[in-house]
Amino acid sequence: MVIQRTALRTMAHVHAHAVARRLYSTARPPRVLVTGSLGQLGTTMVNTLRTKFGGENVVASDIKKPAPEQRSGGPFVYADVLNYRALEQIVVDYGIDWVVHFSAVLSAAGERNPALGLSVNIDGFRNILDVAKNHGLRLLSPSTMGAFGPSTPKDDTPDLTVMRPNTIYGISKVHMELLGEYYAEKYGVDFRSLRYPGIISADSPPGGGTTDYAVDIFHAALKNNRYTCFLKHDALLPMAFIDDCIVGTMQLLEAPRDVLTQRVYNVHACSFSPAQMADEIRRLHSPEFAIEYCPDFRQAIADTWPRTMADHAARSDWGWNPVFGTADIARAMLDKLRPVYAAPNGRTLSAPVEAALAQ
Ligand SMILES: NC(=O)C1=CN([C@@H]2O[C@H](COP(=O)(O)OP(=O)(O)OC[C@H]3O[C@@H](n4cnc5c(N)ncnc54)[C@H](O)[C@@H]3O)[C@@H](O)[C@H]2O)C=CC1
Ligand SMILES: CC(=O)[C@H](N)C(=O)O
């Protein structure tokens, strides 16, 4: 009898917890930490997450000082991904459930400073992964087409293929993909990743990549009607507009775990070269737009990347469905940036954006 009552109490206890867990999970949105949130993608991602889950549920973080407008809308904290304890404290203090890990050193910046690239992209990722493991967090950490290398097939590059990149960035991203898969397999970490193409955004400046020209070209067109490109005229690369990138990232982040047949997905939207984008700018903005080509070390990086990527799995598993092609991207960038450059007080961009573009 006593044993029965104890068993019933235990069952009731377990049931109550199960109900509470269900209620809990449906009653409140996830609390999300975004690292590197002052970068090119972070600003837009934080705004999107806050619209969806509420400002207070999304903790923005970086090692840089935010502009006043980047402080509004929800918490912002200093978080150096090289400091495990500091990351853990944020996770505990804010009750974090999911991490969107955007801190990184991109391809060109990584070749300029390999030691920094290795520490942020490898040591920093290891810390994030360990925090995710130790606190049961869902972790979305993007990879890149830069994870492919010179011996990878360049057209319709599949999810699974030769991966022998020759940049610090690419090597560190392959490491990230494999370590994430290992932690998922071994410790059950809910690790998710997508290999972005070059991302084009008018919201914030790019942070040291090989595809940065495809953002810079619009600022230069509106400011001076001319641009000097650091890639060759025919450097054809996969690209996507920020809206498609963020929608896709949210789709993967929120997808039920059981629909995911793999941990890392190619995502492709369109491909264009500098000359093709210059033609679009002439068509949509000014026939006099002038471009000259002075390829530098970034051309050698671009030479190792795919021209197009196959993304069937992302489309069928969780609904990747980009809508912006090359002409749509050009139109959207010009539409967004025209009013900025037409500012009556002569001020063009916010101070941090101007400072970053001037670097
Ligand atoms: N922007 C693009 O075209 C693409 C981006 N990706 C990936 O998307 C993610 C976000 O990229 P972006 O926003 O473009 O990068 P970004 O370079 O614009 O921003 C990276 C951010 O990381 C921060 N950071 C650097 N060191 C840090 C540290 N020790 N601790 C904390 N934060 C630190 C920087 O302050 C910066 O705000 C990265 O993983 C990148 O590899 C992948 C492919 C294309
Ligand atoms: C494609 C990327 O990962 C990034 N934009 C870069 O050029 O480094």
What does the secondary structure layout of this molecule look like, with pairings?
Elements: H1 2-27, E1 32-35, H2 42-53, E2 58-62, H3 68-71, E3 76-78, H4 84-94, E4 98-101, H5 107-112, H6 114-135, E5 138-140, E6 143-144, H7 168-187, E7 190-196, E8 198-200, H8 213-224, E9 226-229, E10 237-241, H9 242-254, E11 264-266, E12 270-272, H10 274-284, E13 290-293, H11 297-302, H12 312-318, H13 326-341, H14 351-358
Helix pairs in contact: 4-6, 6-7, 8-10, 8-13, 10-13
Please provide a written account of the structure.
By secondary structure, the chain is an alpha/beta fold. The chain has a single domain (31-358), classed as Rossmann fold. Helices cover 48% and strands 14% of the residues. The chain is built from 14 helices and 13 strands. Strands 1, 2, 3, 4, 5, 6, 7 and 11 form an eight-stranded parallel β-sheet that branches. Helix 6 (114-135) runs parallel beside helix 7, helix 8 crosses helix 13 and helix 10 crosses helix 13. The longest helix is centred in the first third of the chain and has 26 residues, at 2-27. The protein starts with a helix and ends with a helix. It binds 1,4-dihydronicotinamide adenine dinucleotide and 2-amino-3-ketobutyric acid. 1,4-dihydronicotinamide adenine dinucleotide binds next to helix 6 and strand 8.
The CATH class assignment is Alpha Beta
Average pLDDT figure: 91
Percent range for β-strand residues: 5-15%
**Helix content range:** 40-55%
Distance between the termini: 77 Å
Distinct small molecules: 1,4-dihydronicotinamide adenine dinucleotide, 2-amino-3-ketobutyric acid
Function: Catalyzes the NAD(+)-dependent oxidation of L-threonine to 2-amino-3-ketobutyrate, mediating L-threonine catabolism.
Family: Belongs to the NAD(P)-dependent epimerase/dehydratase family.
GO molecular function: L-threonine 3-dehydrogenase activity
InterPro entries: Epimerase_deHydtase (IPR001509), NAD(P)-bd_dom_sf (IPR036291), NAD(P)_epim/dehydratase (IPR051225)
